[in-house]
Structure to design on (1468 residues):
């Protein structure tokens, strides 16, 4: 059977918008997908599902979209894969880990394009999935065809992908800064440390005491130390980039902002640079490496001069900011990145993948 | 000349409160000193100085103290060392770096006890001071007699100190967790990384655009990368603990909270522990090391079980929380600490030093 | 039976601390009571109850108190009125409305002094209670002996009270500014409007989605419009002050701060003051009225000059700030107040009542 | 001379985008104008001016726009009215009060369309301007031709306006809820009270100590009581709606959010409604009034059921939410509104006016 034939055609040259659906649209990532798709020039949002809000209009559930005509007419429905497959060509899954696969299987079987924001299809190995997520993978037969939805690294395979696994928020903030350096051999694969701060929306819309205003406001705290689930996809991708197994140290922290991830990376250059000339040469190589990788990328902002990343610069955008410093005192390369966990770290990136897959300009709906 | 005779007697057994003064009481640290000294059972606040507020009462400048009778009667004065020396036995300096020394010299000469919250007397070497602070040390002859005001590490010399240099906020959050491990030889002196988050009060009460509400709220950002001034005192103290020169990596970040420092430390144990038995043994040694160092310390809270430090637990207190995790995947020891940058990181610690020096119970005025 | 004999003696002149207990100590008000009682010079905290935390020490549940020796040894217990009555002379109830009465009845019967922070005993009429709280009053026979715990208004009856009903947070912020004006006949009893902003701790430690960080941060919203439960006690007390039934307009709002209530009151002076001389005369009368009422009160801060209330001035203190402005354009008197909802609005005020009742200096433990 | 001929033609039917410029684009309102105009389907941003940032690109000054191609190429220039008049058909002025008029005069003379976000042309009377702004009006001859830029109230005159005065943020939040009620005679013109909360961006990007993070965070405070400058335009418009001079009470407060205004209005219905039937009838009239006024307005969201306005629903949008409650206890009508002070309260509304004036769909660039 020819997959190219089975998949519903999403002709890049088409002028008419693509019908799209969002399954699980009531969480923070789902809401952000709604925001981006309502104004996307080449997409028509035809279905949004939510068990909790079935029957209510988009405008009722998300008042911020009330001035959009579609938000008045489009109503949440109970999720139903068969129905969705008849309505939409492309389906975004904004569901919890483990649940997404249940929808991906029938949707793919009926010819839909699937862009999954959960972790279900990010790992190439079902065994690693089970190790980190604590249960057997629900659809291991699909892992081989899933493409990791980081356009800056996987643009070509994404053009043909039927199943796209959008990366996690922390992984995006780590992989984009580190992969080019590993590929270029500028840093050692061993000893990488990623120290990240995240806004509270990263925890989802869960009514748990830990995420109450009074418990988060005026609070700074680490969590999930030392083995966070996202490590699995981070290490998978870094290992592929390095051509050797990579194990990293990753520490997430919670900070009282709604959105944003700030990651500080501690890396060991392969060359020494205690002499000023060595540092200067290495600096030039880092610049050249990043420019080659991202110089033309619309959503990667390489900071120059004295600028350092700041989440407030990227909140609400699909941008990631990256800056770096060499420290001759310690021999380390410090790289810092900032992104919006719900945009470049989730829904914006999913839209970027959608644009790549459909052949739209990559910034469509994301400016 | 006998220093013991020259210094005004601060008899531990005395029942009557010690007259104390604060120079530069209008900043955040100064305000916190006022708060702590107004209710201190063995201190009487007799003078507060501020060029900006001279003539106004404490209650006018800091309304929060308005119900304290002393706040109604005590007025800010222009700073005048001679006058202060006549009024107070102990003088706290909450002044900018470089300015503090100008007051310390005459105050010490006139027999006062000086507790300085600036960086002026924290370094043993005038050359290192000049390297990091950009100007020659204003009173290098006093460096030898200054005692670093970290009671958990320098309690005995503090009992006799005439000039106490209270540590910086970041250094406190790093030194207390790391020094015992270095002294015990449990970690390597090389490769230490300290990643810190600080609340905005750490920047002081400066009307700069970077610290406006709208610029800090919903913002997470690194700054001062890679060579922060506080490195000098951190490395001095770690080197003393290790018995060998120590160079560390330190990255401060700004987060939208008023107060609090959260530090995450990446350390390399001297022993491997990939086997479970090795990890268990090393874990026992870490516990034993911390218990020996801090088991009886009133202001160090060693976290057990699943607890991790959280700045909201320590804000307004003189506590520092410390937790640790071994990561067998990477071979690292992760240690995390939380403190209030204005209390254990500044004014509370200064009071603790005051208590040690005067022989009061160390928790006096700090519960 | 002589109540004076039955009640456990709380002799003002006594030197030994009074044994006190807190029932329901795990909420925000309970935690604040713990903070204040641990350092109160004349109280010894002998019991804290919490079904959720029974068996755990104060230091475990509230790490901020960890350096206090009592916090290491005192453990939460299941609430048991008989046991509490044997341990404590004074029992603070920090329980939900309706539950407090269940404990008050047996505790009073066994001779304890009860200071209740719930609404159960604030109303003089069981019928009004039922109207506003939706169920019959659980112990109407006690209403007659309860004293409303606003020391500035009820100091004398509080000295002899066995059952003290500490006022609500909103009522305190409204009654203290308005009652003296009504008593002096300076404002009309009709048409009073109170517009209040509250921090999120006012909602308690409930894991509800409305109070999640992301739902409160960057949010300003009214709630409970137009008939909030607190209206019942506000109107009761205003009516007593005016000598005529008073009905007011009250609108509470939620703002993203942990603590604090800011109330703006719109009042109609009994005299016209469009002429400058009239306004000046009325202004003098307002000043005189407030000075007579509060000039010697340690916890009421009357603002002069251009100052306006700010919750950050009072957070963590038992102070209430009050300022006023006459508006000749509209003929209104605008009065504004700021307090900490958990201190002057709850636990601090309860301690103030405790001090009054026991004859301690009113500021004991509250500076 | 025929004004219709003089003004540069802005043909509604035109397909090509209109060249627009922003003078004073570096403040918060200017930045928001940039955001909206960069993605506006019918506008081409051809010039942005800023003395501070002249020479820098949009992407350098506002990193959030970095992925937009125009942000890379468009550079800030020194403001020059002659040059702007040659470049742009429509010029937005985001300048301080008093300065805007200096640019409006030459721009209008050279045939530009001017949309001014300052207060310079909002008042019909130069005398009232001088009373509230403290200096003579800089260009009183233009007042007669300026149209107040509230499309919901002035849509027809805006279609032909050469000079549009976009309303202030507070006035928008008050006028939209109140004007229809006054016009319909449902409320009395006397005794109106508006109590407003604003985010800190309303104070502009000024490096003043009052707006530092630590001074605003955890702070709730009134300011500018009792005579705020915005009163002048509010009362002008309410008087026009009522057909009689209206004087209102207005109290602004500052709350720790970046954006948003929440206004609570206390109004006196012309009819009594203590009986349930009367209240029901009046409620129907209020509903009918608002539906007639705003039922088809894309940016006015009338809340039904139990919903109350919340700034977080409107931040980043051009929406205003309005809800109301009748209080039979007090005889008042309470109306509440929420808007984003920088969008519907400033730049979004200016774009809405631009759309009306040019004949574009009113939601163009605002969804």
């Amino acid at each position: 059977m020819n997959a190219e034939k089975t998949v519903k055609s999403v002709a890049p040259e088409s002028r008419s918008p693509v019908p799209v659906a969002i399954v699980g649209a009531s969480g923070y990532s789902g809401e952000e997908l709604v925001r981006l798709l309502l104004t996307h020039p080449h997409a028509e949002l035809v279905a949004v599902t939510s068990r909790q809000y079935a029957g209510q209009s988009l405008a009722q559930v998300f008042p911020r979209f009330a001035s959009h005509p579609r938000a008045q007419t489009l109503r949440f429905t109970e999720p139903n894969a068969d129905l969705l497959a008849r309505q939409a060509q492309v389906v975004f899954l904004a569901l919890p880990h483990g649940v997404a696969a249940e929808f991906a299987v029938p949707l793919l079987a009926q010819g839909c394009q699937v862009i999954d924001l959960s972790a279900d299809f990010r790992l190439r190995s079902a065994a690693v999935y089970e190790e980190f997520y604590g249960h057997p993978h629900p659809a291991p037969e699909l892992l081989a065809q899933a493409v990791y939805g980081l356009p800056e690294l996987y643009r070509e395979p994404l053009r043909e992908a039927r199943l796209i696994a959008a990366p996690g928020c922390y992984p995006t903030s780590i992989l984009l800064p580190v992969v080019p350096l590993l590929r270029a051999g500028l840093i050692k694969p061993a000893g990488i440390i990623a120290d990240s701060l995240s806004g509270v929306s990263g925890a989802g819309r869960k009514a748990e005491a830990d995420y109450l205003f009074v418990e988060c406001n005026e609070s700074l705290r680490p969590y999930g130390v030392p083995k966070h689930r996202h490590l699995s996809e981070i290490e998978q991708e870094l290992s592929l980039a390095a051509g050797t197994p990579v194990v990293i140290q990753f520490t997430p922290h919670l900070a009282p902002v709604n959105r944003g991830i700030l990651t500080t990376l501690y890396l060991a250059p392969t060359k020494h640079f205690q002499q000023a000339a060595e540092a200067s040469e290495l600096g030039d190589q880092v610049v050249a490496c990043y420019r080659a990788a991202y110089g033309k990328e619309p959503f990667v902002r390489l900071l120059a001069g004295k600028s350092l990343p700041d989440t407030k610069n990227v909140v609400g955008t699909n941008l990631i900011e990256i800056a770096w410093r060499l420290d001759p005192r310690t021999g380390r390369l410090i790289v810092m990145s900032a992104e919006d966990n719900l945009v470049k770290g989730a829904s914006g990136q999913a839209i970027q993948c959608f644009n790549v897959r459909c052949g739209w300009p990559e910034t469509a709906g994301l400016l």
Remarks:
- The interface with chain B takes residues 38-39, 63-64, 66-68, 218, 298-299, 301, 310, 313-319, 321, 363, 366-367 of chain C (CB under 8 Å).
- The longest strand of chain C covers residues 320-327.
- The two ends of chain C are 39 Å apart (CA to CA).
